[in-house]
Write a structure and sequence with these properties.
Strand order of the largest sheet: 5-4-7-9-8
Helix content: 40-55%
Distance between the termini: 58 Å
Largest sheet: 5 strands, mixed
Order of helices and strands: EHEHEHHHEEEHHHHHHEHHEE
Number of domains: 2
Number of strands: 9
Structural class: alpha+beta
Radius of gyration: 19 Å
């Protein structure tokens, strides 16, 4: 059964990447989705929410491509998904929800510690011309002729210089070798006080961070993210700005 219409929503805007941007990290899933939608015989509405929030394409690079503003998320919009964001570690969506709640500042995300501005543009949703997106996204265009994931990965290496599939496989293999040792509460809190998220993060102008970023910066196995999250929330509830972690203005 064919769909009557498709609403394709990308948080951040890397669906509009050309493929060679130095800040681009994970273009593959967006390119595959865009390519797939363009082969469906149905009306497609392409929307970008939270432009720049995925830390891949800066907002200034997206302004000229974004179409009309169609919605601005509010606290009420976020209420229905708040429980999901309690357990789902999506960083871009988490920051989208945070900006809808009025959070402003700079959030550090991913293992690379990418700084992402949390501004009034964060909760906005823009319509984007589908043909223009496809004309910009070289990877999406060439993917339309593929039939296997191996072909997709090879084209990503050719166009972008890498494939995030390779990165995720290597990372998963490394994490599998790391023993899931439950973090010692005192040691974790001590590390936070001495590490990037308290002193150094403040010096970099960081106001918030994600639990994924904390987990990876402390070299903890990803399977322990929820344990770490509960430890921090229970120990320092005043720093929990759901679903982000707030950097204190002064050391505790």
């Amino acid at each position: 059964m064919s769909p009557e219409s498709i609403d394709l929503l990308d948080v951040g805007g890397d669906v509009l990447a050309r493929g060679g941007e130095p800040t681009l990290q994970c273009p593959l899933a967006d390119a595959v989705t865009l390519a797939a939608c363009c082969q469906v015989n149905a009306p497609i509405s392409l929307l970008v929410a939270g432009p720049g929030l995925d830390g891949e394409l800066p907002l200034d690079e997206l302004r000229g491509v974004l179409g009309p503003l169609v919605h601005t998320f509010t606290v009420k919009d976020v209420e229905s998904v708040s429980s999901v964001l309690e357990w789902h570690p999506s960083e871009a969506t988490g920051m989208l929800a945070a900006t809808a709640r009025g959070v402003r500042g700079t959030c550090e995300m991913q293992d690379a510690g990418l700084p992402v501005p949390l501004t009034d543009e964060g909760p906005t949703v823009h319509e984007v011309d589908l043909d223009e997106a496809l004309s910009r996204n070289e990877l999406a265009r060439v993917i339309t002729a593929t039939t296997t994931l191996d072909e997709v990965g090879a084209l990503s290496r050719e166009i972008c210089g890498y494939s995030e599939i390779d990165y995720e496989r290597n990372k998963a293999a490394w994490l599998k070798e790391q023993p899931p040792v439950k973090p010692d509460p005192e040691a974790v809190l001590s590390q936070l006080d001495q590490f990037q998220f308290e002193a150094e993060a403040r010096n970099r102008g960081i106001t918030h961070t994600t639990f994924r970023r904390i987990t990876e910066a402390l070299n903890l196995n990803g399977s322990l993210r929820e344990d770490l999250r509960q430890l921090l929330i229970n120990s320092r509830p005043e720093q929990y700005g759901a679903p982000l972690w707030r950097i204190t203005s002064t050391p505790e």
